[in-house]
Design goal:
Blueprint: E1 2-7, E2 12-18, E3 25-32, H1 39-48, E4 51-58, H2 70-84, E5 88-92, H3 96-105, H4 111-133
Parallel strand pairs: 1-4, 4-5
Antiparallel strand pairs: 1-2, 2-3
Helix pairs in contact: 1-2, 3-4
Length: 134
C-alpha cells in the first residue's frame, strides 16, 4: 500500500505517491480545478495506486497559525475522507512551494515550465517530510 501526498490549491492540486516501502515520495502530477472538484477522480486514482493514507499540506504562517485558506484545505480533506474512505492527516506545508521551486530551478529554467511541475513537486516534499518522520 502507498501513501498519497496532496498540495491543495484553488486552481491546481498537486499529487505525489510514496513507493510501496513508504520510503520515497515521487511527484505524480497536477489536478486542474475547473469550478468544482471531481472527488470520483481522486477515489479512482487512490484505488488504482492502492493508497492507504492521504497526507494533505496545511498552510500555516511563519508563526505556525493557520492561514485563511486553511479552512478550505480542511474542508477538502473532509471531502476526500468521505469519498475515498481513507484517513487524512494534515502536515505543516510552510515553505514547500519555495523549496519545490528551488529544486525545479536546477533542471527547468523557464518559469512557465516550472509552474507546471510546482504543485506536484510541493506535494512530493510534503509527503517526503511525512515519510521521513515515520
Amino acid at each position: 500500500m502507498r501513501i498519497a501526498g496532496i498540495d491543495y490549491g484553488e486552481k491546481r492540486i498537486g499529487i505525489a505517491f510514496s513507493d510501496l516501502l513508504k520510503m520515497l515520495a515521487t511527484p505524480y502530477g497536477t489536478y486542474e480545478v475547473n469550478g468544482s472538484i471531481d472527488f470520483e477522480y481522486f477515489k479512482k486514482l487512490f484505488n488504482d495506486y492502492q493508497v492507504e493514507l492521504i497526507v494533505l499540506g496545511l498552510p500555516l504562517n511563519m508563526k505556525g497559525e493557520e492561514q485563511l485558506i486553511a479552512k478550505k484545505v480542511r474542508d477538502f480533506g473532509e471531502n476526500l475522507k468521505k469519498y475515498t474512505n481513507l484517513p487524512v492527516k494534515f502536515l505543516d506545508e510552510r515553505l514547500t512551494s519555495s523549496i519545490a521551486d528551488d529544486i525545479l530551478k536546477r533542471s527547468t529554467k523557464s518559469w512557465k515550465d516550472r509552474k507546471k511541475k510546482l504543485d506536484s513537486m510541493s506535494a512530493c516534499i510534503i509527503l517526503q517530510e511525512y515519510l521521513d518522520s515515520l
